[in-house]
Specification:
- With about 80 residues, this protein is mainly alpha-helical.
- The protein has one helix spanning about 1-55, and strands at about 60-65, 70-75.
- It has a two-stranded antiparallel ribbon.
- Strand 1 and strand 2 form a beta hairpin.
- The protein is rod-shaped.
- InterPro entries: Cenp-F, Centromere_CenpF_N.
- This is Centromere protein Cenp-F N-terminal domain-containing protein.
Length: about 80
């Protein structure tokens, strides 16, 4: 009967190690995802700032809506 206990304990140890490995993978992927999200946020701020900066130098006959990605030329 003790061989069965040893076998079950061995399986339990393997499963615990596998769980730790998967938990580490999950945490690593979550950290990588967070880092990528932060890069996208920084890039979006950079693009928005540059868009507004560039559009602010246009003649007043242009009407810009950078959040919508729209640029109008008003012809009188």
């Amino acid at each position: 009967m003790s061989w069965k206990i040893q076998e079950l304990e061995s399986q339990l140890d393997k499963l615990k190690k596998e769980r730790q490995k998967r938990q580490f993978q999950l945490e690593s992927l979550a950290a990588a995802l967070q880092k990528q999200k932060q890069k996208v946020i920084v890039l979006m701020h950079h693009v928005t700032f540059n868009t507004i900066f560039c559009l602010s130098s246009l003649p007043s006959s242009f009407m810009a809506y950078p959040n919508l990605g729209i640029l109008f030329f008003i012809h009188y």
